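Example (one chain per record):
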Amino acid sequence: QVQLVESGGGLVQAGGSLRLSCAASRTIFRFNAMGWYRQAPGKQRERVAVITSGGSIDYADSVKGRFTISRDNAKNTVYLQMNSLKPEDTAVYYCNAKAVGLDYWGQGTQVTVSS
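Predicted structure:
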């Protein structure tokens, strides 16, 4: 079993920045992919950004150019740098780790962007 613990959420004004962290309880380099998802009230959970073990990165169109995902295998941590935040970025952000036949989720961290 793997535990993923997110941190770094909070309240920020539009145009501001936050950096989310996802600390894994074990080494992350064996995961095929790690990523960030978000869920706003009344909406489905959506993929925000994913980084694979090979270093490939994919972003949702809505965050391209504003968000940056990165991973530090030595610290077993994945980050999401969020710049130029907008009120529509308000959501609970979840960390995810995938391996063959396995799918792990963190408990989520709230991000609220005020206008």
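Caption: The chain has no helices and eleven strands.
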